[in-house]
Specification:
Blueprint: H1 2-11, H2 13-30, E1 45-52, H3 58-74, E2 79-87, E3 90-97
Antiparallel strand pairs: 1-3, 2-3
């Protein structure tokens, strides 16, 4: 089967070259119409709240700063996830919103 296709292409070289030229020309005209990004935006909509609390231990930062901020953030509309970390003198809370949420 494949041998017959190759034999036909060899015997009809001009027709194969014309078909190839038409295919390349069609592709060249269609490429500018493609809506592709080289690096599409795949990040989620998120806000980070970082708070410094010099002199407080990690447990104190968690109780006095991180928990209250988390409670307020969970009450916001379209919240998908709230992540937090508490270290000595530092609280970090990240709020992830549902796709398409306008955070401004």
């Amino acid at each position: 089967m494949f041998n017959r296709v190759v034999d036909w292409a060899v015997q009809n070289r001009l027709l194969v070259l014309i078909a190839l030229a038409v295919l390349i020309a069609t592709a060249a005209f269609q490429i500018p119409k493609l809506n592709l990004d080289a690096f599409p935006d795949v990040t989620n909509v998120q806000v980070a709240v970082n708070t410094e609390a010099p002199g407080l231990a990690a447990e104190e930062v968690e109780q006095l700063i991180t928990y209250p901020i988390e409670a307020v953030m969970y009450a916001l509309p379209d919240v998908e996830e709230v992540r937090s970390i508490s270290k000595t003198g530092l609280s970090g809370v990240t709020v992830v919103f549902k796709e398409g949420t306008d955070i401004y």
